[in-house]
Please model this.
Amino acid sequence: MVKHIVMFKLKESLSENEKIEIMNNFKSAIEALPQTIKFIKDIHVGLNINPSEKWDICLDSTFDSLEDVKAYSVHPDHVAAAGIIKEAKEDRACVDFEI
Model:
């Protein structure tokens, strides 16, 4: 099994209301993906409630293999969901590890 963790920082130029709307839309879209991408074992999006931390969003997901993570990354439904934060994203960090 592979754990795929991604953190996102949104642009500081966005208002708090814009950030909240983008974050909630992203969360809804990502968490709906197991309905169409059956090889996602588990997926959750956490929205940071601590303003003193750098990252705004944490995506935590589980797959059977790194190949499944790679297939997920290019799946059209994932690409569409990721598009929600594409223009709002300032930074991204990712780690994939075996569990």
